[in-house]
Design goal:
binds iron/sulfur cluster, Sulfite Reductase Hemoprotein, domain 1, five-stranded mixed sheet, alpha/beta, 20% strand, TIM Barrel, 356 residues, elongated, 2 domains, 13 helices, eight-stranded parallel sheet
Length: 356
């Protein structure tokens, strides 16, 4: 397991969830429903909760969306973050509706008086503000001075931070996002030298399900390996539940979090005697409800499978219509191929029930 270094950051609390200060790296996502449609938004957040999302952000583009925030907040169990661009009245409305945090860049809402008003509302309710700087939306002045560079991202974040600090407000977390992995890494490294606020990390506009997962995994893993990151979102052009799934896979791979099964499946080879891709996907789906950390193997032949996966808690190996169910390399039973998944699920559930 890699060494888990963590940058020393200060801790903030978002609706009961600790972020920074050595707290577990939390997983968040963002809804893609129309926030004005509270029912659809609540339904999506409940699906996100079920897969382990710990913090959810919703877009608040107008007063009608802001007006639904309280209803959404009361119907869900994870903290709710309102994503607001430019309009300080929406920020005030969101705080009044009871959101747990804002994503807002104070430099974009106009006068110092407006910043002061928003900060006062946030301070009263202990509502943190995430400053989120994105490579695609930097000021012209910064672009002229630094180009579209990591330094420009950092400078922009520091300007926004300065506006909040001027009001003695320090319930801050920061994200610096670029669609360029190495630029993102460099930007966080520079910022880590300058402030100790917790970092929200991710690679923005990472892409579709598979490409985005790879790009996010590379970027997020590099950051986490350097100890940079207190909470994360994997941004995918896909269902938000997929973002949460990928986030946990990244965190599990690095040993930062444990949740649900770790699937060990062989890459298949000329000895494969079963439709392993479909079998592995069926196992993944059938065990998606398991929260306990367990290693589950799905192997393509009965000769080498159980031995190659002896470190797995449970596993199956397929071959010519029959297959083996095994536990830590020991064969438990031989079964018809079409009963393998069901038998594996039953074995796992019995094992977990016996442990309680
Ligand atoms: Fe090939 Fe069997 Fe190893 Fe899978 S478990 S890679 S099928 S030898």
């Amino acid at each position: 397991m890699p060494e888990k270094r963590r940058r020393t950051s200060r801790k903030i609390t978002v609706g009961g969830l600790d972020i920074g200060g050595g707290s577990p790296v939390s997983v968040q996502s963002m809804t893609n429903t129309d926030t004005r449609d509270a029912e659809a938004t609540i339904a999506q957040i409940k699906r996100l909760e079920a897969v382990g999302c710990e913090l959810v952000r919703v877009a608040v583009p107008d007063p009608a969306a802001a007006a639904e925030l309280g209803r959404i907040r009361r119907a869900i169990t994870i903290p709710l973050v309102a994503d607001i661009h430019f309009n300080y009245r929406l920020a005030l409305a969101a705080v009044a509706e009871g959101v747990d945090a804002l994503r807002l860049n104070p430099g974009n809402i106009g006068s110092a008086a407006r910043v002061r008003e928003v900060v006062a509302a946030c301070r009263d309710r202990r509502v943190p503000i995430r400053i989120g700087v994105n490579g695609g939306s930097l000021d012209r002045e910064l672009l002229d001075r630094y180009g579209n560079s990591p330094e420009a991202l950092v400078e922009s974040a520091l300007q926004h931070v300065g506006l909040l600090e001027k009001e003695n407000f320090e319930l801050i977390k920061i994200s610096l996002k670029s669609s360029d992995v190495m630029a993102t890494l460099k930007a966080y490294r520079i910022l880590a030298e300058k402030v100790d606020y917790p970092f929200h990390i991710g690679i923005t506009e990472a892409g579709t399900r598979l490409r985005g997962a790879v790009k996010s995994a590379v970027g997020i893993a590099l950051l986490l390996h350097e100890g940079l990151g207190d909470t994360l979102r994997v941004s995918l052009t896909a269902a938000p539940e997929d973002e949460v799934f990928v986030a946990y896979e990244i965190l599990k791979s690095l040993g930062f979090r444990q949740r649900g099964i770790e699937l060990i499946s062989c890459p298949t080879c000329g000895r494969t005697e079963v439709g392993l891709i479909a079998l592995a996907e069926a196992v993944e789906k059938a065990l998606a409800h398991i929260r306990e950390p367990l290693k589950i193997a799905v192997m393509g032949c009965v000769v080498n499978g159980p031995g190659e996966a002896r470190h797995a808690d449970f596993g199956i190996a397929g071959g010519r219509g029959v297959g083996l169910l095994f536990r830590r390399g020991e064969v438990l039973r031989k079964l018809p191929e079409n009963e393998l998944v069901e038998a594996l699920v039953a074995e796992v559930e019995n094992y977990l029930a016996a442990r309680q």
